[in-house]
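Example complex used in Figure S2.
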Amino acid sequence: MSLADKTLLALLEGALPEEEEQALLAQIESDPVLRDRLATLSGEYILLSELGKGIPQALALDEEVAKATVKAVHQVRYENQATSLISLGERPEKIGSFKVMEKIAQGGMGMVYRAYDETLDREVALKVLHFSAAADPQMHERFLREARAMADINHRHVLSIHQVVHQPDVSFMAMHLAVGGSVQDKLDKTPGTPLQIDDIVKIAIAVSDALSSVHARGLVHRDIKPSNILLGLEPQEIWLADFGLVRDGQMLSLTRSHMFIGTPLFMSPEQAAGEDVDYRSDLYSLGAVLYTLATGFPPFTQTDFDELRRAISEDRPPPLKEKASHLPLWLRHLIESLLIKDREKRPANAAFVLDTLLNKTDQGRAPSRLLLGRRSRSKLRLKRSALGLLSLIVLGAMAFVGTEQSGHTEMVNSVISARSGHPFWITGQWGTFASLEAAVAALQHSRANHEIAINSNDTLGFGYLKITQPLTLRAANKRKPVLSANENGTVPQQFGHFEVLAPLTLRDITIHQRSNHFQLRPLFTVRNTELKLEHCRIVRSSRTQQELRSIERGLISAFGSARLSLDHTESIAFGSPVISLTGSGDPQTSRPLVKVSHSRIFGRFLSMRGHDVQVTLLVNRSGLACNYIIDQQSPGSILSAQVSGCLLITSRALMRGTVARNSSGHPWLRWVGRNNYICNAGPYLLTPDTALETIEEWQAYLEENDGACRQAFHDSGDQINIPQIQDARIFAGGTYELPDPQQKHGLLAPAPLLPSITGPRG
Amino acid sequence: MHVETRVTLLHRITDPADQRAWEEFTKLYAPLVYAFATRRGLQHADAADVTQDVLSAVARAIHRFEYNRNRGTFRSWLYTIVRRRLAGFFDDIARVRRNYEGEQLYNLDNHPAAAEEEERWDQEFRTHIFQQATERAREEFSEKIWLAFSLTAMDGISVMDAGRKLQMRPGAVYVARHRVIRRLHDIVKGLTEEPAPLP
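Predicted assembly (961 residues):
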């Protein structure tokens, strides 16, 4: 660029100093060549032919013609979505190692071909990115996102992806070839005619099943429509496809540029309004698809885009009662509930929809082929459906054609995973929930044995969880979730945050309970059932004065014959016992069992209060650093303990009790200890009127009751402080140390505890 | 109305999800096609039909254009479609005329030569796009800046005179005019992918 040009451009940008500008302007006035050059540089010449004539009149088009044209274009685009646009001449012969055979469909980003995979000798569907799209980084990103989403989901009702090739010159993905075409094709064969009810239900089951898996990964499909539901030859072969618009919480920016995304006929009110969408938008679209299958027409048929959007946001679709009166009532209700404008009021999640579909079809309320998609069931269940069938036959309602029992899904052990973000989700293989409470509550209603995996590294709040069905709550693979127990103020204090009425297992989970007052409810109340903590960390802290930090409700408060087990678990609860045991009032059902192994306990350990209990305590290879290890506050309670390979450190007393001997004159404690290291600062047994200060006194007390301390090291001389741990450090997951007895006492001491007391993983 | 310059309108209409783009596109080109057809002698209803046909054909075939993007301008591609539709229309008329001899529906003898006709299309196309661009650009600039542009670039008033009239330094008039022109280029390019970018 010449110097003169540079100066002229500087003038155009307003970047010249005033004097220079003055001089240049004067020069321009007198120099036509310079003026000409300036015009060229400012781009005037390209517009010259237009500029010379002034601003032209706008071309008029009457409103009706404009509208009709928009309508015509929409019509074409709608019809055209799956039809051929590219002539055969433009079809590539070969892409990668795939021999291209014919074009199946055309999307916004590319073509879909039927192709032959020479290496594996099979036919596949090949989705190839457009040349023009390939140059666009946004399109590239979208293409890759789709591939990743599909590869990740791997679900029987999600079209599987075989291979992705992503190169500068060509990008494509090879997918399973759905030979049965799409549901749209099926609709097109007989336009305006509804599908058979069993077909509708089958499709509904498959799509809701697929969606629950999609949503479990925190993804939203956003483009549920008949042309994206593909079919195989077998009736159960139904696949959800085209994840080109799929999105998760992190991907907002990519799609913001498109104000409206998704097929308008099936899009949700929130999509139509251009709002952020979540999984509930897919539920609406599913409803719109089912409505279309049931009536032959989409819920809204406006062809003008703005008009359609308005209708989706405001109008009620023609009621199914009129348009599809042949549908069973429950199915009409289900479809209409999915089409509710307010997403809060739609069915909670795809799992709920699936569950409804499965249950309703199972229980004989849907006509014909009742056991659609069902799997092997318990005998009771079969009986029940047989009864349902029988009653219907007796009623003479209709003839039955086959009660096929096909399908291969088993809804046992559902995995629910949480994914935090905004909004906070807990999602599952067949469920997506707004909170942990909702997830647990939903699972409790189903009959099967369930497992919830929390797929998050974040701190997730929860208030009150009532466990009425066996449940395992665990971290998803390699995740380290923290559950934070928050008061929600609606549940009486005596209930724990977890009210355990059926066996509960926690694995790889950290639970925090903290408060500024000391009116803390138990973290767990276990009533006559089983609680297992494996590789967990449970921490309680109340920020009060030291003297007020005495909370008699244990972190785990067990009633009756509860079975508690702590394995590789760390518990910290200063001022309150980790475990408090209360009987039921009946000796027969007041026999709790407590097992602790490879665990570390800080604070206080075990307290017996209220109704008497007969406790069996098994502690193995664990470290307990406590004020009191055992606290007996119910005079009739009996403790039978086997403690081996443990490190016991106390600052006040090993045991504390209301009495030394119970009413029959026998010691209440039976203690069989082997290979323990006991470092006790105070008496071994402390009661209001007795104190067994020495090991000999204590030993005598134990032997009266068949107890003994074998091969134990007793170290009362050294004052060993219980590790002082600051709240902040605890909650940050900080570590602390227990002394290694072997360093002090040599090889005779118990084997080092700490390496084997691993506590929580990680 | 703001036109995104990074992603052109033509690019956006190939995205089936981008419903808005098609509305914008139709509203932009339907008046042009309609006016062109009317100028060729078609009556309102016929011109409306042709307009619908042309836009539908574009919707059907835009991917083909996208596919061969480097082979020509959108302007000439669109013209091919318009010409074919009009030819088809006049063929029908001719057939009708053979049956109803004597009833003069359209004066087919007044066809301009093909080259002239294409030139006219080009002119109308560019004028229309320019008009649309000015309409869109107008909203983005202040009165003063717009006048600095329109007085000097379109009404032929000299920069000095315009500066005096608007109480602007002549340098500022140049800057203002340049900003508007640059924006017009951007908008035109966003709509048609023509002309070539500025130096």
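Confidence is low (pLDDT under 50) at residues 1-6 of chain B. The two ends of chain B are 27 Å apart (CA to CA).
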